[in-house]
Specification:
The complex is a heterotrimer of chains A (about 180), B (about 650) and C (about 190). By secondary structure, chain A is α/β, with parallel strands linked by helices. In chain A, about 40% of the residues lie in helices and about 20% in strands. Chain A is built from six helices and eight strands, in the order H-E-E-E-H-E-H-E-H-E-H-E-E-H. In chain A, the strands form two sheets. Chain A has a six-stranded mixed sheet. In chain A, strands 2-3 form a two-stranded antiparallel sheet. Chain A is elongated and about 75 Å long. Chain B has about 650 residues and is an alpha+beta fold. Chain B has four domains: about 1-160, no CATH class; about 160-410, no CATH class; about 415-510; about 510-615, no CATH class. Helix content of chain B is about 60%, strand content about 10%. The model of chain B is unreliable at about 300-305 and about 640-659 (pLDDT under 50). Chain C is mainly alpha-helical. Chain C has seven helices and no strands. Chain C has helices at about 20-25, 30-35, 60-70, 90-100, 105-120, 135-155, 180. The N and C termini of chain C lie far apart (about 65 Å). Classes of the chains: A alpha/beta (about 180), B alpha+beta (about 650), C mainly alpha (about 190).
């Protein structure tokens, strides 16, 4: 019986590896869950992309839920995601805030002119300092923030119709039900 | 030379591997000498065809055959010929071909040197090697064919990853594989012993040189990898506890334990089951390592996509080979405690403790490496395990070994002489303490450095005391048998390694600095003067090359040329400049120019002073040498062809050898 | 599934395969093998971004910074530490760590600051919590279990201690190897 122990331990390992293969076939291996879910969004005050002399702060956005979409003109994956936002952005039924991350404002403005803008509002974080507070580690990322300013959902990577249908839309609906 | 011939060669090799794997084992089971005799010719045939396939791939690379997908992916027209050869194993498919080639190298060696082994045993050993080959060839043919065509053929290929364009690439993988794959021999011996009910009492002695040699190669391969990372990466780091590194380190640890367990089993008859188990573990970890990093299982840390189909294939193969062996072990391993009894104070006990620590260390590395995956499975979130974990637990587990090492040869088998041990302890202890105190003055009391000096002296004095004892007590020619010399060298290597690690870790200086041409910076008594950057070019790259003059006490010690190279497709590679020395390395890496438009202005530079860092690899090389010297001991060579009865029976056979 | 991208023309990650963009450009298998083959090979891309002289007060502060950033993971190039990573985010975070140090925060506070934003994953040192008990205590458990086995093994073979001899080879001379002649006298 004692002699069977190595075999049994190995069988466990095989199980673990089988799980690993299965898991990795449908998970983004670089995905790291955000610690900010259900926590208040960081206070921020960022200039508008189109009117840099005007500042948008977290306080000014309270009262209604909104979706922050982190993008940039240099970001290849954002270009993949953009058509989806253009097509389905309105249907989400929520304000879309574009968050221009570590970008040159002129490049960003040009990019939005070329690709179109699905956003109700675009703010610019050129130094990327505020993005650190959001725990952004690459673009595109999307944050769902409720009426009280609490982050309720984060998606890392481009939004696809499947993700929107499976995760984002239900989250948005839940958040909207709470709002007065 | 059509690549399709390569595919054909692989298929033929596969068929021969099946013959080699299946027929001799049936023959051994049934006592059929004809079937058993298939082993050697089949092995030879397989080797010929695998070599052919390999050479065809090399040819394709040398002749820029971009119609082969693999060649197009890994080379281009400007790649120098020596890197084109190295590119053969620069990616997945080719490296598997290298693996099976090296398996054949060991098999052919085994076939050649096993004529004196009893027929049944030899047939089983070669048969097991054949079974392993079947698995690999199947994997290559069905999922990882290096000869696939790319049509229409592109005019030029992609490139070999610039970091692989380095002498390390030509050397490290083949040597590492010699080690990894070499453990298959000890594995084959163990399976043969289990299948035969351990009729052959001397099988461990036959296995020892093969195991020591494989371990020696693995040591060299790991040292080469570490040195290469240091030279290429630019960060002065030599070990990162990265999953890929851990994959090679685990078999090394288990191999070290195995070498010592084999000594007990061979000389005292005990620990037979444990030795069998370790042989299975060592090769299993090799297989695990080889596959872990290409199956996608560890993408939780490495983040590259993988083909789940390959992962499943590998997993099934692993399950069959390792699961099968462990099941065989459970059923057939000796159940009765054998071997000569021994006192608590004895060499056996010390070796057992050493085995325990090495095995636990290997388990710890496995646990740490796999834990992120476990975390995913148990929904514990993304768990991150890195150097702080391994770097804490590994030295803790190795400390008992360091303490026991000087006593090793002084401990007798069976029952040790306490008096002799006390003497060793006293002398080594005093030497270690004295050197530690002296060192403390030089290193301003840095604990790690002092501990390193103490540990190294403790071990080294123990080794020297024993060498001295043999010198005094025995006549010339009988003093230092190869097995013992190997042991002394390897243990000395441990001392050198320990002092290298602890001194370089505690006394290194790293400093980032911004310098305009003509300015200098002093670290650790060395004056680094930056003399500007200019453009230069190589066979397939162009570079910004800096000149840094290093002076000490007014004399110029070195002129260093760090580079930032740009390869095809805008890939940039930092080539740091290293001024190597026995007692210290100086290391300079170029950062960015202050003004990107003016490379002749000021630049950011990173300067390193790394004392005793070469001792890390020096220690490793001594360990490797110890392994090879031990493998060469005449005592392990089988002296006389076993006198066999006409048909092999299951009664114990006497393996006679003249004195 | 495409991954996240980073603001650099050439992919920043030192170890290929850690950035999907770069990895695609290279060829998936190349990366897999590259990492597979080399027990840690170097990087293909500019390491130079990580070299940035910061205005440290003194050498001790520089050493503290180096040690601290070595214990943190780069979130973009996830198999590199913050000290060595070339990624833009890594540079931003290094600057952040530096500023926090200037503000007088302790190492633990700085780590907590980053964990609050990026989760435990940013630490190479897994924190001790119920989820990681297996990791931290596992080796000890294995050691104790192994120790028990070894102790039993030694005890079992220690019977009749008086008759323990240490001269003859195990196979009772079957092999005919005389210890002295074969050098097996130690």
């Amino acid at each position: 019986m004692k002699r069977l122990i190595p075999f049994l331990v190995f069988a466990l390992l095989v199980g673990l590896f089988g799980f690993g293969i299965w898991w990795n076939s449908w998970h983004d291996a670089r995905y790291v869950p955000s610690p900010l879910i259900d926590k208040p969004a960081p206070d921020f005050a960022l200039p508008k992309l189109d009117a840099p002399e005007q500042t948008v702060s977290k306080a000014s956005l309270l009262g209604k839920p909104y979706l922050i979409n982190v993008f940039a003109s240099w970001c290849v994956a954002c270009a993949e995601e953009h058509p989806v936002l253009m097509a389905d952005g309105r249907r989400l039924g929520i304000a879309l805030v574009g968050y221009d991350y570590k970008d040159v404002p002129d490049d960003a403005r040009r990019w939005l002119r070329e690709h179109g803008s699905p956003y109700d509002l675009v703010i610019a974080d050129q130094p990327g300092r505020t993005a650190i507070d959001f725990g952004v580690y690459g673009a595109p990322e999307s944050f769902l923030i409720d009426a009280k300013g609490v982050i309720r959902y984060k998606h890392i990577g481009p939004l696809t119709p499947e993700v929107i249908a499976r995760e984002l839309q239900p989250a948005i609906d839940a958040v909207k039900r709470e709002a007065p | 030379m059509t690549p399709e011939l390569g595919q054909l060669a692989l298929v033929l090799a596969f068929l021969l591997a099946i013959a080699q794997g299946v027929l001799p084992l049936i023959g051994a089971w049934r006592g059929n000498r004809t079937l058993m005799a298939v082993a050697r010719p089949a092995a030879a045939g397989q080797a010929v065809f695998v070599a052919m396939a390999f050479l065809i791939l090399v040819w394709a690379f040398l002749h820029f055959d971009f119609s082969v997908q693999y060649v197009a992916d890994n080379s281009n027209l400007t790649l120098p010929w020596y890197y084109r050869i190295a590119a053969v194993w620069g990616a997945h498919e080719g490296s598997l071909l290298l693996w099976i080639l090296i398996l054949n190298v060991w098999t052919v060696a085994l076939a050649a040197f096993s004529h004196k082994l009893p027929e049944v045993f030899a047939a089983r050993v070669l048969g097991v090697m054949g079974l392993v080959a079947i698995g690999f060839l199947a994997f290559i043919i069905f999922t990882s064919d290096p000869f696939g065509r790319l049509l229409p053929m592109p005019a030029n290929g992609a490139d070999l990853n610039p970091v692989l364009q380095d002498p390390g690439m030509t050397f490290h993988p083949p040597v590492l594989y010699m080690g990894y794959v070499g453990f298959s021999v000890a594995f084959a011996f163990s399976i043969a012993a289990l299948l035969g009910g351990e009729v052959e009492q001397a099988w461990v002695r036959w296995a020892r040189p093969w195991t020591n040699a494989a371990w020696g190669f693995l040591t060299l391969g790991i040292v080469a990898g570490s040195w290469w990372a240091y030279a290429e990466l630019g960060w002065g780091g030599w070990w990162f506890w990265d999953p890929v590194e851990n994959a090679s380190f685990m078999p090394w640890l288990v191999g070290a334990a195995l070498i010592h367990a084999q000594a007990i089993t061979e000389k005292r008859g005990g620990l037979r089951a444990w030795t069998l188990l370790l042989s299975i573990f060592a090769f299993s970890l090799s297989l695990l390592g080889t596959f872990l990093v290409r199956s996608g299982v560890l993408t939780s840390v490495h983040a590259f996509a993988s083909d789940p189909r390959r992962g499943v294939f590998i997993l099934v193969f692993l399950a069959i080979v390792v699961g099968g062996s462990l099941l065989l072990y459970a059923l057939r391993a000796p159940k009765v405690t054998g071997g000569k009894p021994f006192n608590i104070l004895s060499r056996e006990t010390a070796l057992l403790i050493g085995n325990l620590m090495l095995a636990t260390a290997a388990a710890m590395v496995l646990l740490g490496t796999l834990f992120p995956l476990i975390g995913d499975m148990l929904h514990l979130g993304r768990i991150s395990v890195g150097p702080p974990y391994f770097g804490l637990l590994f030295p803790l587990l190795m400390a008992p070994i360091v303490l026991l090492l000087p006593f090793g040869p002084f401990l007798n088998w069976g029952k040790a002489d306490g008096g002799a041990l006390k003497q060793v302890a006293l002398r080594a202890g005093i030497a270690a303490a004295a050197c530690a105190i002296v060192a403390a003055f030089f290193v301003q009391g840095q604990l790690k450095a002092v501990a390193g000096v103490a540990a190294a002296v403790w071990i080294a004095v123990g080794v020297l005391l024993y060498a001295l004892k043999r010198w005094r007590e025995l006549p010339r020619g009988r003093r230092y048998p190869a097995e013992m010399t190997g042991m002394l060298l390897a243990h000395l290597g441990v001392a050198v390694f320990v002092i290298g690690v602890l001194l370089s870790e505690s006394l290194s200086v790293t400093h980032d600095v911004r310098l305009a041409p003509g300015q200098h910076e002093v670290i650790a008594g060395y004056d680094f003067r930056f003399d500007g950057v200019h453009r230069t070019a190589g066979p397939n790259w162009r570079a910004d090359q800096g000149v840094v003059t290093v002076q000490r006490d007014g004399r110029t010690v070195a002129v260093m040329h760090p580079q930032k190279r740009t390869y095809a497709r805008e890939q940039v590679q930092t080539e740091s400049a290293v001024d190597a020395g026995v007692f210290r390395d100086l290391y300079v890496a170029l950062g960015e120019p202050m003004d990107t438009n003016n490379i002749e202005g000021a630049w950011a530079l990173r300067l390193y002073y790394k004392p005793f860092i070469r001792w890390i690899w020096g220690g490793g090389l001594l360990m490797m040498l110890g392994g090879f010297v031990c493998a060469g001991d005449r005592r392990f060579r089988i002296k006389r062809i076993a006198a066999e009865a006409a048909q092999p029976t299951t009664t114990p056979q006497r393996q006679g050898s003249p004195a | 599934m495409s991954g996240v991208a980073e603001p650099r023309r050439s992919a920043p990650c030192a170890r290929p395969g850690s950035s999907r963009k770069a990895f695609r450009a290279q060829g998936a298998l190349l990366q897999v093998l590259f990492v597979a083959l080399l027990a840690f090979a170097g990087h293909a891309f500019a390491a130079s971004g990580a070299i940035e002289p910061l205005p440290f007060k003194d050498h001790a502060q520089e050493v503290r910074f180096q040690n601290l950033t070595k214990q943190l993971r780069c979130m973009v190039c996830q198999n590199e530490n913050l000290a060595d990573s070339n990624a833009d985010l890594a540079r931003d975070l290094r600057l952040e760590v530096f500023q926090l140090m200037q503000q007088g925060k302790s190492d633990d506070q700085i780590k907590q600051y980053l964990v609050d934003r990026y989760s435990d994953f940013v630490l190479y040192d897994p924190p001790l919590k119920p989820g990681t008990w297996l990791l931290w205590f596992g080796p000890l458990a294995i050691l104790l279990a192994g120790g028990a086995v070894v102790t039993v093994a030694i005890r079992r073979r220690n019977r009749g201690g008086g008759t323990i001899d240490n001269d003859k080879p195990a196979d009772g001379g079957q092999a005919g190897n005389e210890p002295a002649d074969m050098g097996d006298d130690w």
